[in-house]
């Protein structure tokens, strides 16, 4: 055979199939992750809510009900703790497991933008927390005799603190060199959110207050706690939510970078 | 116009080294391959031979230390992200899909391959029917048996057409019905669309039945590449004699004592590769007198790919029959 016999078409590269676009792929990941909840997450969502309600009951023994900063902190901290349990702790464990068992290969061999996988999963985990946060906030407000009229603020607190905590959880899970370390990091993060979120900030020693300022969930707790005042300082509420949103942006970007690194 | 076979996947000089416990392991040690369009090409070798490492480089999951990979005219070493747009990959793990139902796992995978929701749904319905997964469509993968789960993952690979399918031990744990479903689906795509299949296996029977050509991989190198028939021709003129003793072999029988040193012994099973003439004499010797009394079972068989693999210098016991 001579070179002339070779059909010219054999050297032309095959057309590439289209890649998945960011938003449709994000929606597909989100939908699949929500469906996972039906199979495996519901018991854990109960645990998350029971833990927060348990803390409310315990704190009711030492904190007076009514319009005081301690009662505000306990109710807001317990509600946001549900977000920390699910978005930070469970998501760190999920990505840690996916990475350790080779599950990331599935996504890495599909033409899907990394941001779709990370944001879709993070959004789903934040959504899992919605019922638990509202139930905890409702029970807490009733136990501590706080107004429920401004509970709608949770519709901003959940996605913003959810973004910050889920991004952190995903990054921890993807960066941890071993699965057990991902679990450990997730649980430590949740413990920090518990200890630093539920106790009123003014009662904490100064070095611990600095730690509290470093934890993204604190800003969600503060934003929610401020709305229990008879005349909330909306400027500060917006500022706290803004910090949550900014940290969310940074932590989700970090998580996307961590995903790229882990998937290659 | 001449019908010269077009290349689908050309690998040359591929080297990949791992660091494991302080020592360097050459998982791929200069691999060359040329897979033609439309063929079912196999990578056969024992565990640890370097098959999966090779496949992970073809799919863009791993970057080679050196060497080149051309997939349908695309340089995958320089552009690993293009692999996902050229091939469908069935890996060995299903953790990403385990908690989804079979239908949702397939549909989501299709959407992440760039299909619209409607198209992903339609293809999912077709593939589920094609593979006979209808009864399991709404059950989560984690609740299925190993073989069923494997078939569900295979279904996900088929959603969103690709010219190349890379299947890493696709039929592990499957019953014969599921295996048949897999190979019929592969045949159909090959006939209708000219799909190429790269199959990783350590099952010699499967390799003999479904592969057009096979590369035998051992210790990170391709030690042979031919059709299964061509490879078996290497051991033409030989047969394999398997003897299974009831308890200990009767070494007092001279013919058996002579065999003791030549046979490959696995527990009570002795395996011997020899000429048909000698095999006939041996069968005659062990099917009479005290040797026959001690014999539990014997088989005389024509050579398999495993025999070819051993003749090529492969390690014993790595392949499954």
From TrEMBL, chain A:
Keywords from the named record: Membrane, Transmembrane, Transmembrane helix
The UniProt transmembrane annotation reads 42-63, 75-96, 117-140, 152-174, 181-201, 237-259
> Which membrane topology term applies here?
Multi-pass membrane protein
User: Looking at the Swiss-Prot or TrEMBL record, what is one Pfam family this protein matches?
Assistant: ABC2_membrane
ABC-2 type transporter transmembrane domain: residues covered: 40-225
Cite the GO molecular-function annotations of the record.
Answer: ABC-type transporter activity
| Principal place of residence | membrane
Q: What GO terms fall under cellular component here?
A: membrane
As for subcellular location, the record says:
Membrane
- Name the chain's protein: Transporter
Automatic annotation (TrEMBL), chain B:
| Entry-linked SUPFAM superfamilies | P-loop containing nucleoside triphosphate hydrolases (SSF52540)
Under the heading SMART domains, the entry gives:
AAA
Q: Can you say where in the cell this protein is located?
A: Cell membrane
Membrane topology according to the record: Peripheral membrane protein
**GO process terms (BP):** response to antibiotic
* GO CC annotations on file: plasma membrane
Single GO MF descriptor: ATP hydrolysis activity
Which InterPro entries does the UniProt record give? AAA+_ATPase, ABC_transporter-like_ATP-bd, ABC_transporter-like_CS, ABC_transporter_ATP-binding, P-loop_NTPase
The residues covered by the ABC transporter domain are 9-244
**Does the keyword field hold Nuclease?**
no
Name the UniProt key words of this record, in alphabetical order.
Antibiotic resistance, ATP-binding, Nucleotide-binding, Transport
Protein name according to UniProt: ABC transporter ATP-binding protein
Q: What is the native source organism of this protein?
A: Kitasatospora phosalacinea
């Amino acid at each position: 055979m001579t070179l002339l016999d070779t059909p010219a078409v054999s050297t032309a590269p095959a057309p590439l199939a289209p890649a998945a676009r960011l938003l449709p792929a994000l929606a597909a990941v989100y939908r699949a992750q929500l469906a996972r909840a039906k199979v495996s997450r519901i018991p854990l969502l109960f645990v998350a809510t029971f833990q927060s309600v348990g803390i409310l009951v315990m704190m009711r023994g030492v904190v007076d009900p009514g319009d005081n900063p301690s009662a505000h902190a306990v109710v807001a901290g317990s509600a946001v703790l549900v977000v920390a349990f699910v978005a930070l702790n469970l998501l760190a464990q999920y990505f840690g497991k996916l990475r350790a068992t080779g599950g990331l290969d599935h996504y890495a061999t599909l033409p899907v933008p990394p941001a779709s996988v990370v944001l879709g999963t993070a959004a789903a985990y934040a959504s899992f927390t919605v019922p638990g946060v509202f139930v905890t906030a409702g029970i807490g407000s009733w136990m501590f005799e706080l107004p429920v009229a401004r509970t709608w603020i949770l519709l901003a607190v959940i996605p913003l603190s959810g973004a910050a905590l889920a991004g952190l959880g995903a990054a921890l899970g993807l960066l941890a060199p071993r699965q057990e370390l991902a679990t450990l990091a997730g649980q430590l993060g949740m413990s920090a959110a518990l200890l630093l979120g539920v106790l009123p900030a003014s009662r904490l020693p100064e070095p611990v207050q600095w730690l509290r300022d470093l934890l993204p969930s604190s800003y969600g707790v503060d934003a929610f706690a401020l709305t229990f005042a008879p005349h909330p300082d909306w400027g500060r509420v917006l500022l706290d939510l803004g910090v949550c949103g900014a940290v969310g942006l940074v932590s989700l970007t970090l998580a996307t970078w961590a995903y790229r690194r882990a998937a290659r | 116009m001449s019908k010269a076979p077009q290349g689908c996947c050309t690998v040359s000089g591929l080297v990949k080294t791992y660091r494991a416990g302080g020592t360097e392991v050459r998982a791929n040690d200069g691999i060359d391959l040329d897979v033609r369009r439309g063929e079912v090409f196999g990578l056969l070798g024992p565990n640890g031979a370097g098959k999966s490492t090779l496949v992970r480089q073809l799919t863009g999951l791993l970057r080679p230390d050196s060497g080149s990979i051309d997939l349908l005219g695309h340089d995958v070493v320089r552009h690993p992200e293009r692999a996902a747009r050229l091939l469908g990959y069935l890996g060995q793990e299903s953790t990403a899909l385990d908690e989804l139902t079979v239908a949702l796992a397939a549909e989501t995978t299709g959407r992440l391959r760039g299909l619209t929701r409607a198209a992903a749904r339609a293809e999912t319905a077709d593939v589920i029917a094609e593979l006979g997964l209808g009864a399991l469509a709404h059950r989560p993968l984690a609740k299925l048996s190993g073989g069923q789960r494997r078939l569900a993952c295979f279904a996900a690979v088929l959603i969103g057409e690709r010219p190349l399918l890379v299947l890493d031990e696709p039929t592990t744990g499957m019953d014969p019905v599921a295996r048949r479903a897999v190979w019929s689906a592969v045949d159909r795509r090959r006939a209708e669309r000219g799909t190429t299949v790269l199959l990783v296996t350590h099952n010699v029977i499967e390799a003999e039945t479904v592969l057009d050509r096979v590369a035998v991989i051992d210790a990170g190198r391709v030690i042979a590449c031919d059709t299964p028939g061509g490879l078996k021709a290497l051991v033409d003129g030989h047969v394999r004699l398997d003897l299974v003793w009831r308890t200990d072999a009767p070494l007092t029988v001279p013919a058996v004592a002579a065999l003791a040193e030549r046979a490959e012994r696995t527990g009570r099973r002795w395996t011997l590769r020899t000429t048909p003439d000698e095999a006939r004499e041996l069968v005659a010797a062990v099917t009479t007198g005290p040797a026959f009394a001690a014999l539990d079972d014997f088989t005389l068989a024509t050579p398999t790919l495993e025999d070819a693999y051993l003749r090529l210098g492969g390690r014993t016991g790595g392949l499954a029959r």
